[in-house]
Structure formats: structure tokens, C-alpha cells
Specification:
single chain; 222 residues; alpha/beta; nine-stranded mixed beta sheet
Length: 222
């Protein structure tokens, strides 16, 4: 199993500050470093696709992770970033985690890395302040995702997804014009593919906005 940590975005909502380099715990480890430490001994390769201008910054942090591979690219969407990474690697299964996220409480890494199925989503109960900001999922009694929506206010689903594993088969559902990989998952569900979900205890933080990042700091540092 290989891992993709897509980090090629422009971080416009954070005024260009690389979100994945934000400190996130008492030891002031960055969001990216926390993910890397949880992944380094559990997977074959960790691919970090990122913009060329960010590579010197990442290298300056001296991350000594034996299986971290930085891939330089300039893309317009996260879907394009993922597609480019898949096409430049040779794995049959991938785990994808956004490097600007944080998992507080139960961790999803092992469950995702052990999956060999078509697609599996890590899901958390959505907080009210996250409504309309995340991808929400409807999950049936068999832990199958029956519906997925993206950033729909007042949608009312109980869970949001925040990371996933998938087989190479998902590639046929990826449209590089779509904002992120969640649209490929949605396309696959509409084509009657089986997408599994597992529920985690704890909280999921998407640090793409200052408010969500401050909420995370309240839980971990402040």
C-alpha cells in the first residue's frame, strides 16, 4: 500500500501559508510531520506531490523519513494532483490523507492501510460548526456509503469523511477538473460501486481555514 499526501494547493484561504506546515501539538510538530510519523513504518512509499516553490521549504525542515518521495508538480485541482501521482507510480492500492488535516482521538491509519477493497472512507461525526464545509456521507447498516455530498449547508447527514483508501479502479472515475477526489467517489457510488465506511471516535479537523485551525489548537495546545 502506498500513501498520497497531496500538497500542491495554493492555500488561498490561508493567504498562501502552507497549511500542512502549521504546528499542531505541544511539541510544535507540523500537521505534515504528524502524518508522516504515523505512516513511515506502515507503508511502502509516501508520495508528497507539491509545488516546486514549496520543495526547498519542505527540505529545509530535514524530514528524515526513508520512504518519503517528493514529487514536483503544478496542478489546478486536487483531482489532477492525485491523477498525476497515480500515473507516475505503480501501486494497485493507495491511501490518501490530506496533509492539512488532524485526527483527534481514534486514528484511521491502520484501517485504511490494511484495506484492499475498491474504496473505504474514514468518517467522523460532523460538528455543527463544520456543516456546509466538509464532504458528508450517508451510511447504511452494512457500513456502505449510499450517498455523498460536498459542502451542502443543512444537509443533515451525521458523518463527514476525511481520508480514504482506494484501488486503482477508482482512477476511471477521476475527472481532473473536479476540485477533489471526493467527486470520484461520488461518481463511483452513482455507478453502483461499493464504497465502505468506518466510523471513528474523536474529531476531524480540516485546517483549511483560520477558524478550524484555531478550533484544533484549542484541543491540542491552548
Amino acid at each position: 500500500m502506498d500513501v498520497i499526501l497531496p500538497a500542491a494547493g495554493l492555500a488561498k484561504r490561508m493567504k498562501g501559508v502552507p497549511k500542512f506546515l502549521l504546528p499542531a501539538n505541544d511539541e510544535y510538530e507540523t500537521l505534515l510531520e504528524i502524518h508522516l510519523k504515523n505512516l513511515v513504518n506502515k507503508c511502502e512509499n509516501i508520495y508528497l506531490p507539491t509545488r516546486p516553490d514549496l520543495v526547498p521549504i519542505i527540505n529545509s525542515l530535514d524530514f528524515d523519513f526513508r520512504n518519503l518521495k517528493i514529487i514536483e508538480m503544478v496542478t489546478n485541482t486536487m483531482s489532477e494532483t492525485v491523477m498525476n501521482t497515480i500515473e507516475s507510480t505503480n501501486s494497485e492500492h493507495y491511501t490518501l490523507i490530506m496533509p492539512d488535516t488532524y485526527f483527534h482521538g481514534q486514528q484511521p491509519y491502520d484501517e485504511l492501510l490494511e484495506s484492499n477493497n475498491f474504496c473505504k472512507l474514514a468518517c467522523w461525526q460532523i460538528r455543527e460548526d463544520q456543516r456546509g464545509k466538509l464532504g458528508e456521507v450517508e451510511i447504511n447498516d452494512s457500513n456502505q456509503v449510499t450517498k455523498i455530498v460536498d459542502k451542502v449547508p443543512d444537509n443533515g447527514f451525521e458523518y463527514a469523511w476525511g481520508a480514504l483508501s482506494f484501488s486503482l479502479q477508482l482512477k476511471e472515475y477521476i475527472d481532473i477538473a473536479d476540485p477533489h477526489i471526493g467527486y470520484a467517489v461520488k461518481n463511483s457510488i452513482e455507478n453502483n460501486e461499493i464504497v465502505e465506511a468506518f466510523r471513528l471516535k474523536g474529531q476531524y479537523f480540516d485546517c483549511g481555514t483560520p477558524k478550524e485551525y484555531v478550533n484544533l489548537l484549542k484541543e491540542t495546545i491552548l
